[in-house]
Design goal:
With about 220 residues, this protein is of the alpha+beta class. It folds into two domains: about 5-120, Sandwich (Immunoglobulin-like); about 170-205, no CATH class. Helix content is about 30%, strand content about 30%. It has three helices and ten strands, in the order ββββββββββααα. The strands form two sheets. Strands 2, 4, 5, 7, 9 and 10 form a six-stranded mixed sheet that branches. It has a four-stranded antiparallel sheet with strand order 1-3-8-6, with no helix packed on it. The chain is rod-shaped, with a radius of gyration of 47 Å. The model has no long low-confidence stretch (mean pLDDT about 85). Pfam families: MYCBPAP.
Length: about 220
């Protein structure tokens, strides 16, 4: 007869006042029915208590529990054993269980070490979460502001629209600005005459360029 256990160690991590469970699987790898029982060794005790190392009290409360510690296992079958931990005090705790079988197996499994860490609830968890949320929000806002600043720096002001030269007031202003070095003054007939001369000159230049290209 033979039996296998997995895992061979358990580690619990929980807050005080809360119960947490883990499982150990047993598998009968022999050819006969096995009767088994998990037994808690009496000499083990808590190894450390939070806020200082203290001697074990005369009667220490039970913190580790084995549900359905006894049973039978057919050849080739496996079963799960549930172990639980609960503590009302913060600290680190340890116990050891051994597996007894009937009949005895050729290779008895190693003792099962169960360890646990019980810690107080974080009283400032909600405050930290709120702070993290605000910091993340500020980072997002700052990132958006940087993107907008980059876009605004790269944006160019569009050029102003050309003046409306059909407006006599605009004609007078532009004429006076450009003819200030000359003894000329604006008048609508004079402006129309100069505009006609300019248009004729531009047309003649364009005709000359077209003729040279054809030649």
């Amino acid at each position: 007869p033979n039996i296998q256990t997995f895992p061979q160690k358990l580690l619990f991590d929980t807050r005080i006042g809360k119960t947490t469970t883990q499982t150990v699987r047993l598998r009968n790898t022999g050819t006969c029915v096995l009767f088994y029982e998990w037994i808690l060794l009496p000499h083990t005790r808590s190894v450390e208590v939070a806020d200082g190392v203290l001697p074990a009290p005369p009667v220490e409360p039970q913190r580790f529990f084995c549900h359905h510690p006894k049973g039978s296992l057919l050849p080739g079958c496996d079963v799960a054993t549930y172990f639980a931990f609960r503590s009302e005090l913060p600290g680190m705790f340890q116990e050891t269980y051994v597996l007894r079988t009937s009949p005895d197996v050729f290779s008895p499994p190693d003792p099962l070490e169960v360890r646990a860490i019980a810690h107080k609830a974080d009283a400032f968890a909600s405050d930290r979460e709120e702070l993290d949320r605000r910091v993340a929000q500020q980072q997002r806002v700052h990132g958006v502001e940087e993107v907008l600043e980059d876009v605004l720096r790269q944006a160019k002001t569009p050029p102003p629209p050309p003046p409306d030269m059909t407006d006599r007031t605009v004609q007078e202003r532009v004429f006076e600005e450009n003819a200030s070095p000359l003894p000329l003054h604006y008048s609508p007939p004079r402006y129309d005459q100069l505009s006609a001369i300019y248009a004729s000159t531009v047309a003649q230049q364009q005709e000359g360029q077209d003729a040279m290209m054809e030649w």
